Amino acid sequence: MDVSVVGTGYLGATHAVCLASWGHTVVGVDVDRQRVARLAAGEPPFREPGFRRLLREGLASGRLSFCGDLAAVADAEVHFLCVGTPQARDGNAADLGALHQVVDALAPYLRRPSVVVGRSTVPVGTAANLGAVLRRSAPAGDGVRLAWNPEFLREGHAIADSLHPDRLVLGVEEDDAYETLLRVYTPLVAAGTRVVRTDLPTAELAKASANVMLAARISLVNLLAEVCEQVGADIGDLIAILGSDPRIGDQYLTPGVGYGGGCLPKDLRAFVARADELGLGGSTGLLTAVDATNLRQRTRVVDLARELVGDVRGRRFAVLGAAFKAGSDDIRDSPALDVALRLQGLGAVVQVHDPWAGANVRRAHPQLAVADTVEEACAGADLVLVLTEWDEYRSLDPVSLATTVGTPRVIDGRLALDPDKWRAAGWRMLALGRSS
């Protein structure tokens, strides 16, 4: 099939290369000319395992191309909208400006019957508005169908999640549009992927609701961890007990410095903002507390640092981790980076290390010193903070590292380190969820 993907950020580019790998002819369109040029040259604009290989295979096959002109999508049978919906600058609601601009710009090129498929995470009710715009503005009129197909990608696992998803949600009203989408996803349907056909509002709610549930789970386990610290209980043992309960499970049950990234924080806030618009503000206190609990984790890490070293002014800190999670170079709303910036704002001398995200930190925060190696970051440090759960940090040798730092003190913000091993090597160690 001829398919277009409008918006080639993390979501759109990943979707485009996977569609091409299934044999579709795919054109990716973006207003960011530099991004388009990189993708067209086979150079990934972000780090994601498996992405480079699929990108280059798609380009070499001739099935995948990228450009900056929406006219190139006119002959496509299916158009995927993968435009960012960030948090608005003046509030918690989602900023849908780019999405509306894309739909307005796309409509004049829709001269043949086709299906426009939203993949972006949007407030419920958005699809109905966009559908009205397309029916009114597209030359094909009612021949243009609107569907919503939310994504559930995890950064660091996006290719695997695309090629082997645990469910496929299709919000679609017309049978012909549904059959078209089944053709797009033929490899997944043939492999037995669960397909959930639903209405547009339910499909819009699917991704945001999943992120709200995950955010609440993370904040709850962080609250449990704080209680453990106060009473001398061990959060590691507690989550093993809770994770053994089949009603709870062990996924997203690790306490730490909190969640971040480009999805969970802004999606939870947008969900609350939309609920407020619907007159449900009296029911969203729980989610407001979830957000507050998550942000409090960052403050707690800074407080622990001050507890360990006293006045932080002029003291040297090694912050290990800048990406919001391991397996990604994404620093959007990163708890680790936020802690580093807070410490620097208090007058500390901060050295940041991250195996993937260092270049992004240098571009976004040139005021922060970024080390190329862990040893460079830790040289002479008064305190080491492990704030992203990279395996590289899990496998650090505390005996060797003790000879590099100024004082062997560490805060484990991700429960990534073996406390017995580090303390035996002479380190004073604090970990969220474990008593000192």
Protein architecture, described:
The protein has helices at 10-21, 33-40, 51-61, 97-106, 126-137, 158-163, 175-184, 186-190, 200-231, 235-243, 264-277, 285-309, 335-345, 358-364, 374-378, 391-394, 398-402, 419-424; strands at 2-6, 25-29, 64-67, 78-81, 114-118, 144-148, 168-171, 195-198, 316-320, 349-353, 369-370, 383-386, 409-412, 428-431. The chain has 436 residues and is α/β, with parallel strands linked by helices. The longest helix has 32 residues, at 200-231. The model has no long low-confidence stretch (mean pLDDT 97). It folds into two domains: 2-198, Rossmann fold; 212-431, NAD(P)-binding Rossmann-like Domain (Rossmann fold), CATH 3.40.50.720. The strands form three sheets. A six-stranded parallel beta sheet has the order 3-2-1-4-5-6, with helices on both faces. It starts with a strand and ends in a 5-residue tail after the last strand.
Summarize this structure as a short list of keywords or feature phrases.
436 residues, alpha/beta, six-stranded parallel β-sheet, 14 strands
Task: Summarize the model shown.
By secondary structure, this protein is α/β, with parallel strands linked by helices. It has helices at 10-21, 33-40, 51-61, 97-106, 126-137, 158-163, 175-184, 186-190, 200-231, 235-243, 264-277, 285-309, 335-345, 358-364, 374-378, 391-394, 398-402, 419-424, and strands spanning 2-6, 25-29, 64-67, 78-81, 114-118, 144-148, 168-171, 195-198, 316-320, 349-353, 369-370, 383-386, 409-412, 428-431. The termini are far apart.
